[in-house]
Automatic annotation (TrEMBL):
It comes from Desulfosporosinus lacus DSM 15449. InterPro entries: Homeodomain-like_sf, Integrase_cat-core, IstA-like_C. Residues 126-299 form the Integrase catalytic domain. PANTHER family: INTEGRASE PROTEIN, TRANSPOSASE RV3428C-RELATED. PROSITE patterns: INTEGRASE (PS50994). SUPFAM superfamilies: Homeodomain-like. GO terms for biological process: DNA integration. This is Transposase. Pfam families: Mu-transpos_C_2.
């Protein structure tokens, strides 16, 4: 019979008031053993005895046999040839004349395995010395750049002693971004740690994993320059870099919510840099004795100095300028000035930009394009050619893809035709399209525009040729009487 709380209360109250067990049992219509069990309060109805039933057929000898099967598997170390519960049961039947059921053996195998196995969720508490290590990892986030919804990759780094953080975003998680992000991270922290902890991503590892991982040649060169050792985690072992794993989620929830709307990547990265500074100055990590800033000030003294030479993190390539005055880099094309036609140029691809050089001199730079099949034109690269070939102006891609429809439509109305349009383009190159459009809006709609008219607005006349002095020049009065007396001039 199940004793509810009200029944238990009645038993205890009547017994304390001196009523006998027989009388309590009779009036409450329950057995005397039940009243005897609860009357003195030595137990409680909510207490249930833990059910532990050990089948009689699983003797110590059977347990020893099962454990010996486990030991054989460990010695052979063959992943696909291990004892299953069914195989152990079959061996018990054939070798030990076992008469129990398979389910009994299966339960015993499961229990014995759990006693020998450390749960995968178990973690060892770790501590780090100041300047000893930094953990890094990649995450993902979505933002709006110039109104377009864009997926970006967040690079996160965290010093293991102070928990100071570093977060920046990149268009791709490639080697160039990977190296550039770490270089900026060292700048932010004010030094380099002695060890860097990362997973087995292909951007860093060319083969192997964990302690057997072999780093990419360029990454090995980078780590040698900044004098830190590489410590790669085992596969699917996020717990080995738990500090930065937490940072990936924290930065996404706290720095990128609500979803940022920015003009460009540089604006977003400036915001994230500021967020990291604010975190350093104001945050305190749970279970840490001191705030982040206090511990960071201790740790920065132990970081190694950043080398004077700044490691070139770009991916460099050599390309020949084609007959359309463009070069190809990573499946996309970029224009260069036409005077470099058919010449070899050097392309340096950085995380979010590319630089194009000729004989060591930068001739142009671009925001780096990802994907394939895109071409970036600059009007200034083709203006000299257009002045030689003005008939091509109406169909020229560098014109159609770089200027607004407003200016193109206005240029088509010029009375001088293609030549006049090219002259207008030259003014756009020299003064900027926005200024030319501002002049266009000043000209009355009834007036037929010309390039000379635009030039008159550009060449603003001098307001006045008169030079005004702040103070009059002082004149000293001279007495001329002595000169009159000397030369005999008569006084009138």
């Amino acid at each position: 019979m199940i004793i509810e709380v009200d029944m238990y209360s009645a038993i205890r109250t009547r017994f304390i008031d001196g009523e006998s067990i027989r009388s309590i049992a009779k009036s409450l219509k329950i057995s005397r053993p039940t009243v005897t069990k609860y009357c003195e309060g030595s137990t409680h109805p909510d207490v249930r005895k833990v059910y532990q039933r050990q089948p009689d057929v699983i003797t110590d000898a059977i347990k020893s046999f099962i454990l010996s099967c486990f030991k054989e598997d460990e010695q052979e170390n063959l992943k696909k040839q291990k004892h299953t519960a069914k195989r152990i049961y079959d061996r018990l039947v054939s070798e030990r004349d076992f008469t129990g059921s398979y389910s009994t053996v299966r339960r015993a195998v499961r229990n014995l395995k759990s006693e020998r196995t450390v749960p995968p969720q178990s973690s060892v508490p770790l501590s780090y010395a100041p300047g000893e290590a930094v953990q890094i990892d990649w995450g993902e986030a979505t933002v709006y750049i110039d109104g377009h919804k864009t997926k970006l990759y967040t690079f996160c780094g965290r010093l293991c002693y102070s928990c100071d953080i570093f977060v920046q975003v990149y268009k791709a998680a490639n080697l160039e971004s990977f190296l550039e992000a770490q270089q900026l991270m060292f700048d932010f922290f004010g030094g380099t740690p002695r060890r860097l902890i990362f997973d087995n991503a292909k951007v860093a590892v060319k083969e192997g994993f964990g302690i057997y991982a072999k780093p990419q040649d360029r990454y090995l060169s980078f780590s040698s320059h900044y004098a830190f050792s590489l410590d790669f985690c085992n596969p699917a072992s996020g717990n080995e870099k738990g500090l930065v794993e937490n940072l990936v989620g924290y930065s996404r929830r706290n720095f990128l919510v609500p979803v940022p709307r920015v003009a460009d990547m540089e604006e977003l990265n400036r915001k994230l840099w500021s967020d990291c500074i604010n975190y350093r100055e104001k945050h305190k990590v749970e279970h840490r004795q001191n705030p982040v800033n206090v511990m960071y000030q201790e740790e920065v003294k132990f970081l190694n100095a950043i080398p004077k030479y700044r490691f070139d993190t770009s991916k460099t390539a050599i390309a020949k300028v084609d007959d359309f005055s463009t070069i190809r880099y990573e499946k996309n094309n970029y224009s260069v000035p036409t005077n470099y036609l058919r010449k070899d140029v050097t392309i340096k691809g950085y995380a979010n930009s590319i630089g194009i050089l000729h004989e060591g001199t930068v001739i142009t730079t671009y925001s780096r394009q990802y994907g394939s099949g895109k071409t970036e034109y600059r009007l200034e690269h083709y203006i000299d050619l257009l002045e030689r070939k003005p008939r091509s102006v109406s169909n020229a891609r560098p014109v159609k893809e770089t200027l607004t429809q407003e200016l193109l439509h206005w240029g088509s109305q010029l009375p001088g035709g293609n030549k006049e349009m090219v002259k207008l383009l030259r003014l756009c190159v020299d003064y900027g399209e926005e200024r030319i459009l501002a002049i266009k809006r000043l000209i009355p709609s009834r007036v037929v525009p010309t390039v000379d008219m635009v030039r008159t607005y550009l060449n603003e006349p001098v307001k006045s040729s008169v030079i005004y002095l702040k103070n009059e020049i002082g004149i000293i009065q001279t007495d001329l009487k002595k000169y009159d007396e000397k030369y005999g001039v008569a006084n009138q």
